[in-house]
Amino acid sequence: MSLSGIISLTLALVLCPLLIGVINRIKAFFAGRLGVPLLQLYYDLAKLLRKGAVYSRTSTWLLRAGPAVGLACVLAAAALAPLGGGGALVGFEGDLILFAGLLALMRFFTVLAALDTGSSFEGMGASREVQFSALAEPALLLGLTVLATGTGSLSLNSIYSRLGAELWGKAAPALVLTALAFSVVFLTENARIPVDDPNTHLELTMIHEVMVLDHSGPDLALIQFAAALKLWVLGSLIVGVLAPVHSGLLWLDCLAALGGMLVLAVSVGVVESSMARLRLMNVPRLLLGAVVLTVLALILILR
Amino acid sequence: MTILLEGVTVLVLVTNLLLLSSSRLNYCIRVVAAQGALVGLLPLLMHFNELAARVLMISLAGMVLKLLVFPWLLLRAMRGVDVRREMEPYVGYSLSLLSGVGMLIVSFWIGSRLPLAIPGLRHSVLPMAFFNIFTGLFLLVGRRKALTQVLGYLVMENGIYIFGAAVVLEAPLMVELGVLLDVFMLVFVLGIILFHISRDFDHLDIDRLSALKDWHGAEDEPAAFAPEHSRES
Amino acid sequence: MLIALFMTPALAGLLALIVHRDSLRRALLLAVAFCHLTLTAAVWLKPPVSSPSEFLGLDPLGLLFLSIVSLLFVFSAVYAAGYLKRVSDSTQPDILQGTFFARSAEAVFTCCLLEFLATMTLVTLSQHFGLLWVAVEATTLVSAPLIYFHRSLRSLEATWKYLILCSVGIAIALLGNFFLAVAATDHGGRGVPLVLRHLLAHAGELHTQWLKAAFLLFLVGYGTKMGLAPMHSWLPDAHSESPSFVSMLLSGALLNCAFLGLLRIFQVCDAAGQGQFARDLLVLFGFISLATAAVFILRQSEYKRMLAYSSVEHMGILSLGVGFGGVGVFGALLHSVNHSLTKGMLFLVAGNLLSAYRTRNIGEVRGVLHVLPYSGALWLAGFLAITGTPPFGLFISEFTILRSVVSAGSLLAAAIYLALLGMIFAGMAASVLNMAQGNAGLERASDAISEPASSVIPPLLLGALTLMLGLYCPAALTEKLQQAARLLGGF
Question: Which of the listed residues B113, B167, C93, C233 has the most CB atoms within 10 Å of its CB?
Fold first, then answer.
């Protein structure tokens, strides 16, 4: 329960909707529009929390539990994820597996809730989501293995605190490849282009959006906040690899990490504006490529 | 210099993976050109201390050849036939990528097992050479289009060149000239052949160059070779 | 002298490109062929004392293969001159398609033919492994247009397979060269130059692991060029689609040159003490080639492909001979001489059959003895020769190799060897005898079934030579063979 842990979790909870705002603003900028305000997601969450939820008569407790469990999981993951070089709130040996497991649990309950609605659109989205995540998870785990091997520890906390300039000096190519693979996983898990278009209106083309189509009111608020927090958490993994700042001063480290997250959000916006979405057939190839990159990184770091 | 060498090594490995997973021939030709340029950089990086003007010239000549001349020849051949993609290869793309991982592991294993008495040799150069050779052979065997087979051969030659440049210390001139001459003549001759194939066959599909075979199944006659075979696209 | 052996055909080839008149070009071809033969004969009588550089040199092994190349080229040139004269006067319909096809410019063809001789000469002359490799690569490149002489779709396919497979093989051999260079380097980074003489002298210092790996790579690489199974799949196509006198050179001379490359590395391995490892591999590939050839000859439908598979078989026998060692090495070298002569004869006769019957199919050729008396007789004689029937020369060499197999102690191997040879005899007999006998299916034959002298004399002479070698081996040849065999660890 260190100070840095509390600070990193607080920052995560408070600032994650801002990231979404930044991404949307960048996309609007590329489109030549002014775009919604940066704090739009906060307003949306406030609005949704005031509303009432509507549940279909065919749904069971799963539909009500899905968003809650999802948010709980991602909150726990946020407690584990280190912000930049700073410590996480909770850390123990092997917590990187718990991390992946929590994300998987969140995904599992989202899928169950989607299937619970009985609608075919949600089922379609669920099957796609599960297929892509099945390919993305090895990349995530192998990437974490690379980092664990490089720094010689099994806790996210200590991995990221030991990841510094000296590891970069020793094994830069492996770290670059891992960061690349993490980026692909990041884009996949957060349903960003080139895997999924978050702004699409056509249910047949959705993957993530369509699963939460039947939620409303506070449930939707929980889902949106959980999505933003997941973006933050996975983003902090990438920022920790690419910009490890260990100056010893807490505020400097936090500032550097926040700067890194900002840059990450901006680059996500740029990628979303400049690329088209991949054909669904080709997404497994992309994910397989990410897995192969992590395997290569693992081989490089094991020698 | 070590980190630069490692970086170039990893880039070469990634180009091989890209070749295994891509179906667009245009893209593949450019990736092979980039790989040729990277491979040409390697001797410069490896023997940075004892850089002779001769080695520099040969490296530059090789890079120009692989970056400009070969892609130009291959793109010309490709344009002549209007072949854009490799559809339905013998080994699918996802499986190729997974096999690539397997070959990568095997190359690193071989690289670690071979006792090398050369002082100061980088660790990942040998596995990179073997991986290139394996990828080249895989492309030669697993793809249908004649053009991809030529690309596979170029990749294999790159691998052999890496091995030669890394390992053979004296007479590197022989190594480079030999490989360059080999590849240049071959691409030249192959370009001519591809041109003839495209002109007479209207396609670059190796699978259809199968009139000459011994397993005829039930009939004893060789497959009747009607001219309209060459006209269908 | 050695430089002249190589430069004469090389320069003449370039000259052939500029000469416009066909008859002049053919005369040039014949002149160079005979000139080369005389130079080779001169080297036999008076061996050169010193070689101009480290890269070139002529030891008994090289001289043996050089003589085969030279002799075969003369016969090929004579046949070629006659053939080119005949076909330039007419446009022939393609055998299987019924459409007219174009022929490649005769100038380019003659140039490639002469360069082919030059590069093969260079293979026999090289003492440096790098130069040897360059020469073998060059033979691949200059012989590809030769296969593509009849510009048909089948020959294009054959040329493509030939180029791709042989180039891959050569690339593997290049890697073998590099492995050899590593084997020859000591800890200080200095190395023994890849000259045969030096390598043999320092054989004890070579790294064993690298040398063994190098031998394996050379075996696969040059073995592809040589036609050892399972790397032989280009051979039936290339040898059956090219014009007959080119097939004769490919089968009789080029395969031997690739074998020479293999023998050079075998010499180094043997001197370094890895001889048994090398021999085991050679025996393995020899048996695989023999078995593959036997299987494919049995149900063969085209006679030129049958001859090509027979080449695979004989390359396997060569490999076996060297692999079992002892007197088998002498047998293998004698076998290479005999095989080249006999295969040359058979291919030329096959060319006669093809131009008369216009079909490659065994089933459609009947009654050769009636239609083409001379060629028919030569066809039968050639069949008897190539399968190792006494009194032809191949019987002696195959029997010698059998002796070495038996004296090596493995009776099972000898039994398999004889069984496979028997299978091949049966397969070829069925095809050849069916072709030779019977009523002529004259509706497939062309009108004028003449046998011009230039198409009968060369195979006749080759057959006579094979017969002579079966009955009496000149002392000079025997001595040279024994010298060469001693270089390879045999006697």
Answer: B167
